[in-house]
Design goal:
- This protein has about 350 residues and is of the alpha+beta class.
- The protein is built from 12 helices and 10 strands.
- It has helices spanning about 1-15, 20-30, 35-40, 45-85, 105-120, 135, 145-150, 175-185, 225-240, 290-295, 315-320, 335-340, and strands spanning about 125, 130, 170, 190-200, 210-220, 245-250, 255-270, 270-275, 280-290, 305-310.
- Strands 1, 4, 5, 6, 7, 8, 9 and 10 form an 8-stranded mixed beta sheet that branches. Strands 2-3 form a two-stranded antiparallel sheet.
- α5 (about 105-120) packs across α11.
- The chain is rod-shaped, with a radius of gyration of 44 Å.
- The termini are far apart.
- It binds 3,4-dihydroxyphenylalanine.
- 3,4-dihydroxyphenylalanine binds near residues 173, 175, 287, 308 and 310.
Length: about 350
């Protein structure tokens, strides 16, 4: 019995895993285990012998069983310790940085422009980029034979053979939104209309798609003086410094009188600075809305009058943020976007200084 005891206690102590322990349990105390068989022999013994051997065998069986249980628990603990060590994680490590996208300068400037005009009471209007011949030209007092049509390098859509209706165009300016807005809302009104426009032209300062913002203010007594004040207010807020403007008499079919507006700037070492110096830079066209245009939009020119202007968004983005080449705006070059783009939370506001 001492041999049995020694044999199994040592084997249990040496068992490497749960499977080995189970084998040992079957061998020792299973149905046909060595200790179980010995207990069966008790029946053949004399009562005296049984009285001595019975308790001893029971004690041996208990001892082996509890050794098995203790070893099983120890193996489970060791496995858990091993897992805890292997799966250790430093929750204080910094996160892996992820590249974030940026806001395109055109989007940023559109937001800035919108915020400034909103502060002066202008709502925002939109119109379609594929426009009818009527809204893009005729309603704006540009009849079919007018040279302005040819000058605008218009993209025309395709008409089926035999379909003689004038083709739709990719709008060449945001001015048609004036007509659409007045048709829907009448007068008085005060809106800007930012958006994409298209002309077949491509060089360092021209791309076939670019952005304009249209302005329109109609009421009983709006004059060129209001136009000048609004634009100077806008440029000063946008460039963050007092900017002088110069109005030059010009001609647009949709305004009378018409003026091109320059802003004060300086040229030093090939870079332009707005709001200082003695040079002038042309940034927009403007004027008093032509009576034909008001009438085309269903507004009575004997009662109402007002100003309109159209300005290049990309142009003023280049000026404010020192971006030299317009074409790069639309190349989708990641390096350019990371350099000139804005953080998503860099929300423009009139007085945020951005
Ligand atoms: N539509 C003109 C252009 O694309 C810009 C313009 C000039 C808009 C005078 C106006 C305006 O509203 O009054 O060149």
């Amino acid at each position: 019995m001492d041999d049995l005891r020694e044999k199994y206690l040592k084997a249990v102590a040496d068992a490497a895993d749960e499977a080995a322990l189970e084998d040992l349990r079957v061998q020792a105390v299973g149905k046909k285990g060595e200790i179980s068989l010995k207990m069966r022999e008790l029946g053949k013994m004399t009562p005296e012998e049984r009285q001595v051997m019975g308790p001893k065998l029971n004690a041996l069986k208990d001892e082996v069983n509890s050794a098995l249980a203790a070893k099983k628990a120890a193996l489970a603990d060791a496995a858990l310790d091993e897992r805890l060590r292997a799966e250790w994680l430093d929750v204080s490590l910094p996160g892996r940085p992820r590249r974030m996208g940026t806001i395109h300068p055109v989007s940023q400037v559109t937001e800035e422009v919108t915020a400034i005009f909103a502060d002066m009471g202008f709502a925002v209007a939109e119109g379609p980029q594929i426009e009818t011949d009527w809204y893009n030209f005729d309603a704006l007092n540009i009849p079919g034979h007018h040279p302005a049509r040819a000058e605008m390098d218009t993209f025309y859509t395709h008409r089926a053979e035999g379909d003689n209706r004038p083709p739709h165009v990719l709008r060449t300016h945001t001015s048609p939104v004036q007509i659409r807005y007045m048709e829907q809302h009448g007068a008085p009104c005060r809106v800007i209309a930012p958006g994409r426009v298209y002309r077949a032209d491509y060089d360092q300062t021209h791309t076939p798609m670019f952005h304009q913002v249209e302005g329109l203010a109609i009421d009983k007594d709006i004059s060129m003086a209001n136009l000048k004040w609004v634009l100077e207010e806008f440029f000063s807020a946008y460039f963050g410094a007092k900017v002088r403007t110069r109005f030059r008499a010009s001609h647009f079919p949709f305004t009378e009188p018409s003026a091109e507006v320059d802003i004060q700037c300086s040229w030093e070492g090939g870079t332009v600075k707005v709001g200082e110096g003695d040079d002038w830079l042309e940034v927009l066209g403007s004027g008093m809305v032509h009576p034909h245009v008001l009438r085309a939009a269903g507004v009575d020119p004997d009662q109402w009058q007002g100003f309109a202007f159209g300005m290049g968004i990309d142009r003023i983005a280049m000026l404010k943020y020192g971006i030299p080449d317009l074409r790069a705006f639309f190349d989708s070059d990641l390096r350019w976007l990371r350099h000139y783009g804005f953080a998503a939370l860099d929300v423009p506001a009139v007085h945020s200084g951005v």
